[in-house]
């Protein structure tokens, strides 16, 4: 039986550790209700979301997303409405809480020339809630755009 060199084993283990650390950067999935969502959320990249509970609306400043993931969301996105995804994976104004939501930017408002929507995941890391934009459905928080609530919303 051929022995695997220790250096190779160490390299494989180190690579696995790096991959696991990268995957854990976005924290774990968390649930939030409309009251917890309401308020101002800021990113470290100069973007901000001010979310209103009633009506289910928001305003955004400095928010730009990957055009290859969201081809209809060009330029800086301004304002619109939001809804949680329900247990069936559909957005619903009646869903009172969720682990994912959609930000919908209607055509003709602000600088947005065509309607588009952006998926947002609710995450919990180090006891704090955060929102992150996911460019692709199978990749949580892959955009690198993270928001934390200005009042320091604790995790629930």
Task: Characterise this structure.
By secondary structure, the protein is mostly beta strands. It has one domain (26-149). It is built from two helices and twelve strands. The strands form two sheets. It has an eight-stranded antiparallel beta barrel. A two-stranded antiparallel sheet has the order 2-8. A hairpin with a 5-residue loop joins β6 and β7. The longest helix has 19 residues, at 6-24. It is globular. The N and C termini lie far apart (53 Å). The model is unreliable at 7-24 (pLDDT under 50).
Concise synopsis of the structure shown:
The chain is built from two helices and twelve strands. The chain is mainly beta and 156 residues long.
What topology does this entry show?
Layout: H1 6-24, E1 28-29, E2 32-33, H2 34-37, E3 39-43, E4 48-52, E5 57-63, E6 77-85, E7 91-92, E8 97-98, E9 100-105, E10 116-125, E11 128-133, E12 146-149
Signal peptide: 1-21
Organism: Actinacidiphila bryophytorum
Keywords: Signal
Task: Name a few traits of the molecule.
156 residues, mainly beta, eight-stranded antiparallel β-barrel, two-stranded antiparallel ribbon, 2 helices, 12 strands, globular
Kindly provide the radius of gyration, computed on alpha-carbon positions and rounded to a whole number of angstroms.
18 Å
The overall average pLDDT, rounded, is 81
How many angstroms does the end-to-end distance come to? 53 Å
Task: Give the tally of structural domains.
Answer: 1
Keywords: Signal
Organism: Actinacidiphila bryophytorum
Protein name: Lipoprotein
